[in-house]
Specification:
Keywords: DNA-binding, Transcription, Transcription regulation. The chain has 288 residues and is an alpha/beta fold. The chain has 9 helices and 11 strands. The strands form 3 sheets. Strands 5, 6, 7, 8, 9, 10 and 11 form a 7-stranded mixed sheet that branches. The longest helix has 28 residues.
């Protein structure tokens, strides 16, 4: 049976590596914490820590159990939240998507919430890597973002296409058709939250022998605009991630940016998760 308190005690000791400090932060006695850890080790029949002059050091079993405990506790907290919502008639699911896909995902999530009385999507627009991290730690079950390079970690389905583009700097403002070759030697600013696009851009440049000057990778739009104005640098963004500014798309297959819906590898959606997945797949198919 899951003992939430015991898991939290173990995780705190693992994180601070000190019986005194962990007990202090948990507001319990060191003796009480020690008994809890001993009871857990007895149940598991493994040693989770070994003592040292500087505190406690996790064993290999302790390292493994910590990672599993994080996932277990996150799943438990989500299940408890859903059970409470279900008692009130509605289940809530976290659904992160990349900031670059706000134009597509915001109206779809709103439509889903408006048409489903028993399920509510708590959506968030996040950097690519944070979307992936939420799934890996079981804080979310699906995410939509530009395709990354971690096929062994996630199952994915392509749901659309975007395209790399630039807000042109002074040396590209007259370019009518942009290729990667046009960016050779040019000053470029990368958006810090769009790691998958940036990785694809860097990989393609390396393969083609193209050497842009990367002035900064930043999530501070004001700083990016400053470099754009003062240094004449171009800002690399997905084509759909624009306001009223002029952008020039990168032409050809090199400019394509596949958009995927991902889930943790091996996860088989059932019940409400299946409902959510199939609804979005239907919408994405209709948009192609």
């Amino acid at each position: 049976m899951l003992d939430e308190k015991q898991l939290r005690y173990f995780m705190k000791l693992y994180e601070v590596r000190s019986m005194h400090k962990a007990a202090e932060e948990l507001y319990i006695s060191q003796q009480g914490l020690s008994k809890s850890i001993q009871s857990l080790e007895s149940d598991l029949r493994v040693k989770l820590f070994r003592r040292s002059v500087s505190g406690v050091i996790p064993t290999e079993s302790g390292d493994y159990f910590y990672e599993e405990s994080r996932h277990l506790l996150n799943s438990y907290m989500q299940a408890r939240k859903n059970a409470r919502l279900l008692a009130g008639g509605r289940v809530q699911l976290s659904f992160p998507f990349a900031v670059s896909q706000m134009h597509m995902m915001y109206p779809l999530c709103q439509e889903f919430n408006d048409t489903h009385e028993d399920i509510r999507l708590a959506w968030e627009a996040l950097p690519d890597q944070e979307c992936e991290h939420r799934i890996l730690i079981n804080k979310a079950f699906f995410a939509v973002l530009a395709k990354g390079d971690t096929p062994d970690t996630f199952d994915f389905r392509e749901v659309g296409k975007d395209r790399m583009a630039v807000i042109p700097g002074k040396d590209l403002k007259d370019v009518q058709k942009l290729t990667l070759r046009n960016l050779d030697g040019k000053k470029i600013i990368l958006h810090a939250g769009m790691q998958n696009m940036n990785r694809r851009f860097r990989t393609l440049c390396l393969e083609e022998g193209i050497h842009p000057q990367i002035l900064a990778t930043t999530g501070d739009y004001g700083f990016a605009r400053y470099l754009h104005q003062e240094e004449g640098a171009s800002i690399l963004i997905p084509e759909h991630y624009r306001n009223e500014e002029k952008v020039i798309p990168v032409s050809g297959a090199q400019g394509e940016l596949p958009v995927v819906m991902i889930r943790k590898k091996g996860f088989s959606p059932k019940d409400v998760y299946h409902t959510v997945e199939q609804w979005f797949f239907g919408k994405f198919d209709a948009m192609k």
